[in-house]
# Entry
Amino acid sequence: MLKEKTILITGATKGIGRSLVSKLETQPNVRFALVARSSELLSELQEHLQRQGHECEIFAGDVAAEPFVISTVQRVVERFGSIDILVNNAGIGRFGEVEGYSLGEWQQLFDTNVTGTFLFSREVVPHMKQQGRGHIVMVASDVSKRVFEGGSAYCATKFAQDAFSMALRKEVRRFGIKVSTIFPGLVDTEFHAEPEGDPTHQKWLRAHDVADAIFYVLCAPPHVVIDELMLHPMIQEY
# Structure
């Protein structure tokens, strides 16, 4: 289903993004456009993919920086001729009581989790409309649907991301563009205070579990769109 598709992934070098790249590289002739902050990690990933026979372009920068996003999408289209899939995966978390947040911390969360999603989606939509097809996947969180103590800012960004996704889905569906949102529960990645692989994460989801879910959504037949998919470890009650 994904043969010869051009796939743009943000937050591509770690966690869910990196696991998704590993999953997708098993597909023949997938073309990768990878976005992250670390140019070093991106270069290592590019070399790996090229050894596997894939074309890959890399872009190091901030997903909330409008000039960077505009330039990245333009360069991907120029290089590959199209963008078939966008995976808005980049995200950060910060937690604590509300009086402990600075305005800068609040804005940084919204910049990465919400503005980055908006900017990349806005820039790829015209190209997907012209193609008459496309798929935008948002990697959100189960806290897009619920809240928890100490998560006021983070939950607010994920609710906003979900609302944006739902409205965008209605807006672009008639143009043949799919919008899908993934809502993972607890995932063992560097995202948390404890290191990846910490014993307290033993029964959590793994990044590859979420990557498998995204892959499943991407492989739906052309006439099927999976609007939303939520997944949890068995130990987590929603």
